[in-house]
Amino acid sequence: MARILLASPFFAEHWDAGHYWARALNRLGHSVLGWDYRLDATPPPGDYDLALVLKGSRRVSEMLHGPMVCYWPDQLGRGPAEEEDLSRYDRVYTMARPTPPGMIWLPGAWEPQVHGDRRNRKGAPVWDSIFIGTWTPYKEQMLRVIQPQHLFGNSWPARMSPGPATYLHRFAQLLADSRVAINVHRVPTAGLTRRFFEFIACTFTISDRAPGVEEILGKDLAAKVTFGTAEEGRELLLKYLADPGERQRLWQAEQKAIANYTYEHLARRIIEDLA
């Protein structure tokens, strides 16, 4: 098995995605050398077979050697500096849809030890609906109309009556305690983030119609659980709150659709691509 340098800005907190990637690689039998390049100026000493970089920058890629792969977990604005940085990698994966030339589409993921655990122990819902996520103007525009019963996250104005940001097992439990989760991306053109998959792993979810959603859920299922406008989102929420049987049936279909989008599946895909 390989020794992998995992370079990530997502190690600072225990809930950051870098830890999910490291655990997935360990479960596949690989040893992981972690580098949080926001905190440490240079990579840790030692040889490695592959460098897997989450997000990255020119400074990061210039310090690496051997086979290098970049996974860009956000929307990609490709200026000259980014183009030069990304050209250094053997492969670049992105969640963006449509996928830019020379890159490979790889959407977000969920972690069974966190989100699947809550799904398996999900009891009777405590409340009707929920949204968890950081404020953006687009999210507020949509959610003011859809009106989730509870809203949690960073940077929300007081007029939206938000609860605090929440992560990891608390995040998963809040979702599992809800009949319906409402997923809205940062902007309408955003690719499928990890939250889309984490929400579905924990409870039935309706989502804005982000690029790539039909490829994950299939056209028929996506037509039933996604919305293009805030008004459509509100209608879907009320419809499924009133029909628990259909809600459960559709959630089972959603779970089946995301079954192969765990961090372990994503890590295996990247390793196999380089084999």
- The CATH class of the largest domain is Alpha Beta
Helix content: 40-55%
For the record, give the distance between the C-alpha atoms at the N and C termini, rounded to a whole number: 12 Å
Number of structurally distinct domains: 2
Number of helices: 12
How many distinct beta strands? Answer: 11
What number is the mean pLDDT?
91
CATH architectural group of the largest domain: 3-Layer(aba) Sandwich
Brief digest:
Helices cover 40% and strands 17% of the residues.
Provide an overview of this structure.
The chain has 275 residues and is α/β, with parallel strands linked by helices. The chain contains 12 helices and 11 strands. The chain has helices spanning 17-27, 58-62, 80-86, 112-120, 137-146, 168-176, 194-202, 213-217, 219-225, 230-241, 244-258, 263-274; strands spanning 3-7, 31-35, 50-54, 68-72, 91-94, 104-105, 127-132, 150-152, 178-183, 205-208, 226-227. The strands form 2 sheets. The protein has a 6-stranded parallel beta sheet, with helices on one face. The protein has a 5-stranded parallel beta sheet with strand order 8-7-9-10-11, with helices on both faces.
Describe the structure using short key phrases.
single chain; 275 residues; alpha/beta; Rossmann fold; 6-stranded parallel sheet; 5-stranded parallel sheet; 12 helices; 40% helix
List the helices and strands and how they pair.
Layout: E1 3-7, H1 17-27, E2 31-35, E3 50-54, H2 58-62, E4 68-72, H3 80-86, E5 91-94, E6 104-105, H4 112-120, E7 127-132, H5 137-146, E8 150-152, H6 168-176, E9 178-183, H7 194-202, E10 205-208, H8 213-217, H9 219-225, E11 226-227, H10 230-241, H11 244-258, H12 263-274
